[in-house]
Amino acid sequence: MTQTLGVVDIVWKGRNIPVEKGAKLKLGGMKNNGVVYGRKVGRAQEFEGSEIEAVTALERGQRMSELYTAEEGELQVQCDTGQTYTFPDAFLTDNREMTGGEGGKIPLKWMAGDYEEIVS
Description:
This protein is an all-beta fold. Helices cover 0% and strands 56% of the residues. It contains no helices and ten strands. It has strands at residues 8-12, 15-17, 24-26, 29-37, 40-48, 50-57, 73-79, 83-93, 105-112, 116-119. Strands 1, 2, 3, 6, 7, 8, 9 and 10 form an eight-stranded antiparallel beta sheet that branches. A two-stranded antiparallel sheet has the order 4-5.
């Protein structure tokens, strides 16, 4: 039986961030856009950034400043199927937000440029 993706681990600036089920990864890169002219369709390329979304929980004694910083840093997305995606220039977007009553959910969203894929 073949293994499929189940668990995603996030490492942000060298620190493991435990995340809930449902993390999302949109790999960036060159994208083709259709350009209609006359009765023809051509293509124009543009670069689209990578987007990574995950939810973690607020723990006793944890500081939000350990998660949210204004600077870029290295983000790794490690999959239990052996793939690791490394983004050297990732940065957090969106506001610092947490939800009480459901485990102190903290949504995290990063954007980044190009990535390196490592398969073990």
